[in-house]
């Protein structure tokens, strides 16, 4: 916590730290990793096993993307990356009928709809003797919710609700103080809480394939003998929990996170900077003189800049500089910072703090070097997100009531049609089985891209498509120069680019294939001629047609 938040942050332990960190390097490294891995919402891609299922697969793909945005999946994944930097990233897939969703333990949750959230490692409990999370005999997390919501929830057994109600928040605190010598700090009866709160814990038992929900105290002791809720789990072998481990250790489930390997360098750099700061504060310049030369000292003290002063004993006066930042320590600190940046995966480039490359291509080459240095971590994160999205897709596919409002634009028109994802109870809302669809994420869809990189991608794509214009025109399309200028104006934040061309309103094509008159920029009258172009790659008129279309034409006829 100290290295993550800084020593000036208000600490709950009430301790006063004797030393303060001057440079928040750990915070910067965590931000860089979060930005590099999860800067954007993941893009889902679904591959059906049958050609006939392609339209529904595209519909399913859009539904997951849209639903992920409504539940703030991008922010959840960023939180998981940040937690994995310091310890372990844990994502939890909440079932629609789960207690946390039903009683809205999180404000981003919608009651009765599946949800994905980040679980803090401090609220997670598991079988620590297991060498892998897949081998744990149980996995559990706890979350705070309002006491009244629990005792008034009709989905929970009335007998257990009565026991909790009789016990009450004060009684729970009394039990906590009696057994552990402290109240249920930060949850129930805390001055910082407007409502009385209580912890609930979801406990997944792999052998039974069941998730139990128990009320617990701050030490994870069950407050009732029986669970409030029992739900069967049909998903992954680790239950609703998915783990982002960026520092796996053989035969250990507890990781060696990146922060643990950077902490010593962080402390060393701050120790050196504290020493340099203290030396700078002690630095002083003194004018000294031999005793007995008080007259000369007085004259020098009263003189102003540029005065000529006659002294009896000028050799008796001198100037002494005391202390100051040690240059060897300063060089050592700079070298340690370079090592920290290297160990963190070229931190300066990831955060855009270093010198910028002259061209986007050069900057992209630096970015590729950064990617290679963190390739293993990127691969683990991709696998983690893929598992999470697969479970989200499973819950959405099997959900009987959840709807995802969507619209689909008809290509080539301004018309939009309803494309809402329906609940499973609706007729013909599902095609095939979930096993018929492979759910994955687009590689690199979450990586951060600067405006310069986006502009470079746009220009490269346009340059590659330009030679294909004849073939595109044969198939009924044409290069959209106007859209290209709009996107370039957007990425360069230069709206004037859109004004470089003036655009006329095209007359609608004649249904009978006749000619249409139009007004040319010169004011002359000309005709549109719809001319058949031979199919195939050949044709002597293709290059000429493209040239006429993409230039500021002086001719009064255009061939399509």
Secondary structure layout plus pairing:
Layout: H1 2-5, H2 25-38, E1 44-48, H3 54-70, H4 73-86, E2 89-94, H5 99-102, E3 115-118, E4 124-126, E5 139-146, H6 147-151, H7 158-180, E6 197-205, E7 210-216, E8 229-232, E9 241-244, H8 258-282, E10 284-289, H9 294-302, E11 317-322, H10 327-343, H11 347-351, H12 360-373, H13 375-398, E12 407-409, E13 416-418, E14 437-441, H14 451-465, H15 469-474, H16 481-491, E15 516-519, E16 525-528, H17 542-550
Antiparallel strand pairs: 1-14, 2-3, 2-9, 4-5, 5-6, 6-7, 7-8, 10-11, 12-13, 15-16
Q: Total number of helical segments?
A: 17
Terminal-residue CA separation: 66 Å
Number of strands: 16
Q: What can be said about the biggest beta sheet?
A: 5 strands, antiparallel
List the keywords.
single chain, 560 residues, alpha+beta, 5-stranded antiparallel β-sheet, 3-stranded antiparallel β-sheet, 17 helices, 14% strand, disordered C terminus
Word description of this protein:
This protein has 560 residues and is an alpha+beta fold. It has a domain at 451-550. It has helices at 2-5, 25-38, 54-70, 73-86, 99-102, 147-151, 158-180, 258-282, 294-302, 327-343, 347-351, 360-373, 375-398, 451-465, 469-474, 481-491, 542-550, and strands at 44-48, 89-94, 115-118, 124-126, 139-146, 197-205, 210-216, 229-232, 241-244, 284-289, 317-322, 407-409, 416-418, 437-441, 516-519, 525-528. The chain is flat and about 110 Å long.
């Amino acid at each position: 916590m100290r290295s993550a938040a800084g020593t000036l942050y208000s600490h709950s332990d009430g301790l006063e730290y004797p030393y303060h960190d001057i440079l928040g390097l750990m915070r910067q490294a965590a931000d860089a990793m979060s930005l590099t891995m999860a800067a954007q919402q993941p893009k889902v891609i679904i591959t059906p096993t049958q050609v006939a299922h392609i339209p529904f697969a595209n519909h399913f793909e859009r539904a997951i993307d849209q639903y992920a945005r409504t539940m703030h999946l991008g922010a959840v994944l960023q939180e998981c990356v940040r937690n994995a930097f310091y310890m372990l990233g844990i994502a939890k897939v909440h079932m629609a009928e789960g207690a946390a969703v039903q009683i809205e333990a999180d404000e981003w949750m919608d009651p009765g709809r599946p949800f994905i959230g980040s679980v803090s490692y401090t609220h997670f409990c598991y079988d620590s003797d297991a060498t892998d999370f897949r081998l744990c005999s149980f996995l559990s997390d706890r979350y705070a919710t309002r006491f009244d919501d629990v005792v008034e929830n009709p989905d929970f057994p009335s007998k257990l609700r009565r026991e909790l109600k009789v016990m009450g928040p004060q009684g729970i605190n009394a039990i906590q103080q009696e057994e552990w010598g402290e109240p249920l700090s930060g949850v129930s009866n805390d001055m910082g809480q407007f409502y009385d709160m209580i912890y609930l814990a979801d406990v997944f038992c792999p052998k039974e394939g069941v998730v139990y929900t128990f009320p617990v105290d701050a030490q994870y002791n069950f407050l009732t003998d029986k669970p409030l809720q029992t739900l069967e789990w049909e998903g992954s072998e680790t239950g609703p929990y998915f783990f982002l481990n960026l520092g796996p250790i053989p035969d250990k489930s507890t990781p060696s996170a990146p922060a643990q390997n950077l902490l010593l360098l962080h402390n060393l750099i701050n120790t050196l900077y504290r020493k340099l700061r203290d030396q700078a504060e002690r630095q002083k310049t003194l004018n000294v003189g031999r005793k007995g030369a008080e007259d000369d000292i007085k004259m020098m003290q009263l003189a102003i800049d540029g005065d000529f002063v006659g002294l009896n004993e000028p050799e008796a006066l001198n100037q002494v500089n005391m202390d100051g930042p040690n240059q060897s320590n300063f060089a050592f600190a700079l070298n340690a910072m370079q090592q920290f940046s290297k160990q963190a995966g070229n931190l300066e480039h990831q955060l855009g703090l270093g010198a910028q490359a002259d061209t986007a291509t050069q900057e992209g080459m630096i970015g590729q070097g950064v990617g290679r240095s963190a390739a293993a971590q990127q691969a683990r994160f991709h696998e983690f997100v893929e598992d999470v999205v697969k479970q989200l897709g499973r819950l959405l596919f099997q959900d009987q009531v959840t709807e995802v409002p969507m619209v689909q634009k008809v290509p080539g028109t301004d018309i939009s049609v309803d494309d809402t994802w329906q609940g499973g109870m609706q007729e013909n809302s599902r095609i095939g089985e979930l096993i018929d669809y492979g759910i994955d994420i687009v590689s690199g869809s979450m990586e951060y891209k600067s405006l310069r990189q986006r502009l470079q991608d746009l220009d490269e794509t346009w340059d590659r498509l330009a030679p294909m214009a004849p073939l595109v025109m044969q198939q009924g399309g044409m290069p959209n120069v106007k859209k290209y200028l709009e996107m370039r104006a957007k990425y360069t934040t230069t709206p004037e680019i859109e004004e470089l061309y003036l655009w006329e309103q095209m007359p609608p094509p004649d249904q009978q294939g006749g000619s249409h008159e139009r007004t040319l920029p010169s004011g002359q009258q000309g005709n549109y001629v719809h001319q058949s172009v031979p199919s195939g790659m050949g044709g002597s008129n293709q290059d000429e047609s493209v040239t006429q279309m993409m230039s500021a034409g002086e001719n009064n006829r255009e061939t399509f």
